[in-house]
Amino acid sequence: MEIIQKLENYIRENNVEAEHMLRTGFWLKEIHPEADEAFYIAAVCHDIERVFPLRDGEVKPPKTGNDEFDEEYLDWHGKRSAEFAEKLLRENGFNDEVAIARIKTLIAEHSLGGTAERDLLRDADSISLLENNALKFIQEGKDKKELKEKFDSEFARLSSEKARKLTRLFYENAIKKLND
Ligand SMILES: [Fe+2]
Question: 19, 66, 82, 106: which has the fewest C-beta neighbours closer than 10 Å?
């Protein structure tokens, strides 16, 4: 439990998409109360690489924001987040090797979907995006047509009725704001 507190504090202090990451953990537990500590850690750390500036020689692949075209970016982002999550865990004295391997795999694959656990994590990520990031995207003046497609696809790919139920209001609210 202590490690979770440390990671959550770290995310809050560094405040790069803190709300998005912490709420992904929250929603994971809502849709999957059985989630163990490793699964929860993967959820709150799934985008952690964004805290860390590019290192010498590191190149971020192009990102369109549409997952269909962002295979290379999503692979890079997932693996980089897995690497930094491991670093943080070890720096905080966490060395359960089985759990670390599981956390890294979950994070590296968090955008893929296609297995029960990948679907759960991607659903939690989508719920949190529509809850916490959608209005920010609109305020930032991003292209409305592209945002509509993004919000539609985030909602459409939810893998369960439970997730859709929890997300519907956030989704409808985001679409309404988009049309204002
Ligand atoms: Fe995310």
Answer: 66
What spacing in Å lies between the alpha carbon of 171 and ligand 1's midpoint?
16
Arithmetic mean of pLDDT over the chain: 96
What's the CA-to-centroid distance between 27 and ligand 1, angstroms? 12
pTM (predicted TM-score):
0.95
pLDDT reading at 115 higher than 70: yes
Find the 93 Cα to ligand 1 centroid distance in Å.
Answer: 25
**Confidence class of residue 66 from pLDDT cuts 50, 70 and 90?**
confident
Q: Which amino acid is at 42?
A: A
For residue 116, pLDDT beyond 90: yes
CA nearest neighbour of 85 among 73, 66, 101, 68: 101
Query: In the chain, what are the domains?
Result: 2-179 (1.10.3210.10)
Write the DSSP string, 113-167.
Answer: --SHHHHHHHHHHHHHIIIIIHHHHHHTT--HHHHHHHHHHHHHT--SHHHHHHH
| Arithmetic mean of pLDDT, 64-93 | 95
Distance between CA 162 and CA 164 in Å, rounded?
5
Q: How far is the CA of 121 from the centre of ligand 1 (A)?
A: 9
Give the span between the Cα atoms of 119 and 157, in whole angstroms: 9
